[in-house]
Amino acid sequence: MLHLHHSWLCFRSWLAGMLSVLLGLVPSASSNISTSRPNILLLMADDLGIGDIGCYGNNTMRTPNIDRLAEDGVKLTQHISAASLCTPSRAAFLTGRYPVRSGMVSSIGYRVLQWTGASGGLPTNETTFAKILKEKGYATGLIGKWHLGLNCESASDHCHHPLHHGFDHFYGMPFSLMGDCAHWELSEKRVNLEQKLNFLFQVLALVALTLVAGKLTHLIPVSWTPVIWSALWAVLLLAGSYFVGALIVHADCLLMRNHTITEQPMRFQKTTPLILQEVASFLKRNKHGPFLLFVSFLHVHIPLITMETFLGKSLHGLYGDNVEEMDWMVGGKGMGGWEGGIRVPGIFRWPGVLPAGQVIGEPTSLMDVFPTVVQLAGGEVPQDRVIDGQDLLPLLLGTAQHSDHEFLMHYCEGFLHAARWHQRDRTTWKVHFVTPVFQPEGAGACYGRKVCPCFGEKVLHHDPPLLFDLSRDPSETHVLTPASEPVFYQVMERVQRAVREHQRTLSPVPLQLDRLGNIWRPWLQPCCGPFPLCWCLREDGPQ
Predict the structure, then answer these.
(1) Which fold is adopted by the domain 1-178+254-543?
(2) Do the bridges between strand 19-26 and strand 39-46 make them parallel or antiparallel, or are there none, so unpaired?
(3) pTM for this one?
(4) Which one of 10, 55, 86, 181 is the catalytic residue?
(5) Looking at 3, 79, 147, 165, which residue is catalytic?
(6) In this predicted model, what pLDDT tens digit does every residue of 288-346 receive, in sequence order?
């Protein structure tokens, strides 16, 4: 959570593949907000649904610590993420900008970074709130998941590393916890790679057999050299298909302390206590502040690795166990522009400053964390680029009645799928230009896919676009038409004009998640031994 002695907690989460963030401030002795320089603690959790915690209405999942933060703070009910998957959303969270502005999107279906050994990542010319706070004298730390890239040209240049983006201290996963990291029924990469390797094996085996037959029958004039090489490569591919799971675990499931690999592969039953100890150690070292600590949980992403203490304790199976473990640490994926993929919890806690128990229904964004944190630390928001986030403090303090977000855009990769218009004192409209195809029809999920697509045959382009009144229909179940909504055409014209104005502010940038930046490159693979013998255990606790 975020605890400040001025404490501010922002908790964000998505359904199905979304990200949850807890943001908090810990108070300083000063009562003047403009000079308080509060300690700041940010908490983020992968794949936690907005309906999966008690303070947002779940009465069967035990999340007492998060609920207590909500009771003591301000709860946002219209809090929106900038993307429905972790890599682009994290980029937006750290920079206050739509991920399309920094190139942290794809145009070919690669919605997140696929490998630790890929060259894509958060560009070095982007400014994070950590970088600004470090310049203002804050100790800055990141503990947990990064998933915004590591290397550019060599296995040790660490051009995308957290320490190159304003953090003084890093302990955690440079990549992301995924289904292949442990014995788990849902593979995110292994099965696909096994199929490709087996196909290539079959091709090369057929080539080798054909060459052997041609050589023995004298029908193909060939030396034994290509026969031997074809057979050798076939054997290597066959072996690779059997060991690809282990190779993935060693390549991507690792822990780092600053620039040094400490565990490769990770010991998952030890990970939660190690992260907790690391958090305690950072807070103890920097207790006199000011500090910014970003705790990015590995929970509740598959493979739902949970300590034995919490196994079987919830009413919702392994997922519930994992949620409750994540809550203890505190004390469907990628649905395009649908609310289930982008609407997240938001809790801000600052004792003595923000009113306890307040609920705000104005539209806000996770991108708002950037300018809010920067302003609280006495920094200045960059003037040389577009910042899409807005300072939340006036809204949280009650000095402003309305959000500064009149329009919010909802991207899927680099494609604009939807937009919302908050018509002050009236309603909030949502317009969908493109939606993923849910199969079977009405299921609310993309059949046969872990992540819904953003383009191609599996999306629908709507003409006219779909219109919803989120004030009356937050679950987006009743499509409005010109016949049922008198102001249908006026709303469409205003939203489409806002979209055109927004698109004029975009500049072309290299897409970090497209194929060239998002394929595995052996020379970029972090390895704590001679490649490919990547294995080490260098420490058992925090430093």
Answers:
(1) Alkaline Phosphatase, subunit A (3.40.720)
(2) antiparallel
(3) 0.83
(4) 86
(5) 147
(6) 889 999 988 775 444 445 545 555 555 545 544 554 444 444 447 566 788 877 887 78
